[in-house]
Write a structure and sequence with these properties.
By secondary structure, the chain is an alpha+beta fold. The protein contains 7 helices and 10 strands. β6 and β7 form a beta hairpin. Bound molecules: protoporphyrin IX containing FE. Protoporphyrin IX containing FE (HEM) binds next to β2, β3, β4, α2 and α7. InterPro entries: Catalase (IPR018028), Catalase_core (IPR011614), Catalase_sf (IPR020835), Catalase_SrpA-type_pred (IPR024168). Keywords: Heme, Iron, Metal-binding, Oxidoreductase, Peroxidase.
Length: 301
């Protein structure tokens, strides 16, 4: 996996303009300190300490998905929200979400093949013909196109629904395993039409976040979707049926800006006692890809 991760990061560097010191994906973003308050409703499913009723300190980074930080906000319709919880025993654990309920590649090999086909996304100009032929070759990736309405850019970082996409297992006191998916829900969901988003100057999402923080608080709810037997746990290209039960397990309030977060890596496989990663190969591959990106950008800065 590590070799393939290195090859994939090399491929991303070849295809995109990535200035020295930047993340190899989600390069441009803005970071805050935050406070997470658990409702206690997850206690029956997990012994994870930050999900027992009470407060935990956290860091949050919002981002535009492009590896090129100079792409406009419109060119990166998928936005990211990465949260790192600071647990009372000094350890950390992460939830990394994007404004799409599914990912376009089922396996690391397919992801790498797809990136390999793309000749260049430099200067922010993807080749539409190349993209079209990719979707013909990888039909499961077409699900993202069918889902395009759900992938419209939010009108602000604060109005997006952020899905962690992969399945995780909650483990309770009795050792029972419950498959779950995380979703960060904003106070108000609002999207922008592709025409409106094109008019936005670069950095307008970050400026909007500053304005909203100056006006008052920014909050998100953390929901988990509870999986049922036979719901797929290893495939990030499919959603679970819409009627699955949802539970609100906490809320997050941003407190103040925290530029220092640029140094940390939000590895989605960094879990804690009471939570396990699923067998999803993309999830486990991300551990290696993020470490390599982190090592390279730290050496450069
Ligand atoms: C093959 C699959 C993937 C690869 C190779 C990949 C690669 C990367 C890399 C290299 C970074 C920068 C890491 C760093 O330097 O700290 C990153 C960041 C990020 N990725 Fe992925 N990614 C993949 C899938 C996903 C998926 C499925 C999601 C959806 C939840 C996602 C969401 C994010 C977010 C939100 C960030 C920014 C985190 C931050 O703010 O530091 N990625 N990705």
């Amino acid at each position: 996996m590590e070799q393939l991760a290195k090859k994939t990061i090399d491929q991303i560097e070849k295809v995109f303009d990535i200035p020295s010191g930047y993340r190899r994906a989600h390069a441009r973003g803005k970071s805050y300190k935050a406070k997470f308050t658990a409702t206690g409703s997850a206690e029956q499913f997990t012994i994870a300490s930050h999900f027992q009723k009470g407060e935990t300190r956290a860091f949050v980074r919002f981002s535009h998905f492009s590896p090129d930080p100079m792409w406009t906000d419109a060119m990166s319709p998928v936005k990211g929200m990465a949260v790192q919880f600071h647990l009372s025993d000094g350890r950390t654990t992460n939830i990394v979400g994007v404004t799409s309920p599914i990912f376009f590649a089922k396996t690391p090999e397919i992801f790498s093949e797809m990136i390999g086909v793309v000749k260049s996304f430099k200067k922010g100009k993807p080749n539409l013909k190349e993209l079209g032929s990719l979707l013909m070759d990888y039909p499961e990736s077409g699900a993202m196109i069918k889902n395009i309405r759900k992938m419209q850019a939010p009108s602000s970082f604060t109005t997006g629904q952020y899905h962690a996409i992969h399945v995780f297992y909650f483990i309770n006191q009795q050792g029972q395993r419950q498959p779950i998916k995380y979703v960060w829900e904003p106070e108000t969901v609002a999207t922008l039409s592709p025409l409106d988003v094109v008019k936005l100057p670069i950095g307008s999402f970050e400026a909007d976040l500053e304005d909203r923080m100056a006006e008052g608080s920014v909050n998100f709810r953390l929901d988990v979707i509870l999986g049922q037997p036979n719901d797929p746990t290893d495939d990030p290209t499919v959603e679970w049926p819409q009627d699955r039960e949802r539970l609100t397990i906490g809320s997050l309030t941003l407190t103040e800006e925290a530029a220092e977060i640029d140094k940390i890596v939000f590895d989605p496989t960094c879990v804690t006692q009471g939570i396990e990663c699923s067998e999803d190969r993309i999830l486990n591959f991300r551990h290696h890809a993020y470490q390599i990106s982190h090592q390279r950008r730290m050496l450069e800065s």
